[in-house]
Each structure stands twice: as C-alpha cells, then as structure tokens.
Amino acid sequence: MWFEGISGQVGLGRSAAGVNATEGLDERLHSAEREAGSHERDMSSFERERIDLEHRVSRMEAELESLRKRRLEVYARWWNARDDRDRARHVCRRLRKKIDKARKRGGGE
User: Fold this and answer.
1) How far is Cα 11 from Cα 103, in angstroms, rounded to an integer?
2) pTM of the model
3) Given a cut of 80, is residue 31 above it in pLDDT?
4) Separation of alpha carbons 92 and 99, rounded Å
5) d(CA 98, CA 105)
6) What is the C-alpha to C-alpha distance for residues 31 and 2, in angstroms, rounded to an integer?
7) How far apart (Å, rounded) are the C-alpha atoms in residues 102 and 108?
8) In Å, how far from its chain's centre is CA 108?
C-alpha cells in the first residue's frame, strides 16, 4: 500500500536511530510533496484541456443544431416544391384531356 511504513513509530527510545529515521521520513515527505505537486500540475493541465474541449463541444452542438434546422427547412421546401410540381402535372393532364376531347370533337365534325 502507498501508506506502508508511515506508522509514526520510528524508535523513540534511541536518539541516533530517531535522527536517522527523522531524516528518512523528511526525505520521504519531500518526495511525496514533489509528487503531489507534479500531479497538481498535471491536473491543472487536464482541467484546462477539459474546459477547452467543453467549449468546442458546445460550439459544435450549436452548429449541429443549426444544421439540423437548415436540413428540416430544406426538406420542407423540397416537399412543397414536390407538391407544387404534382399539382402542376395534374393540371397539365386535365388540360391535355380537354384539348384531346376538343380536337376529337373538332376533327370529327
């Protein structure tokens, strides 16, 4: 475990052993503080990157929403043009039938 050996019991009965143990603990403390500082810098860097990505995602989501709206508007215009075309074709068919009937009546008389 990462906390093994940090029991606080460093041989309090012996002064020389206590000094050596204190120096060892002191070095471990400084090492752990350096490591914590390194992780803190990493975390700060990751946080900046996360915020940047969050902003980019927000912009892209807004752009995506805009494109979806445009897609629906274009489809609606296409649908309306299709309906107008179909109506115009229907009128053409009816007019052709009337013209054909008129020609048959006019040609047969």
Assistant:
1) 123
2) 0.56
3) yes
4) 10
5) 10
6) 13
7) 10
8) 74
What is the distance between the alpha carbons of residues 13 and 108, in angstroms, rounded to a whole number?
Answer: 135
DSSP 49-90: HHHHHHHHHHHHHHHHHHHHHHHHHHHHHHHHHHHHHHHHHH
12's CB contacts (< 8 A; 6+ apart) are 18
**What confidence tens digit (pLDDT) does each residue in 43-94 have?**
999 999 999 999 999 999 999 999 999 999 999 999 999 999 999 999 999 9
Of the candidates 23, 22, 27, 1, the one whose C-alpha atom is nearest the C-alpha of residue 10 is: 22
Q: How far apart are CA 6 and CA 2, in angstroms?
A: 9
pLDDT at 89: 98
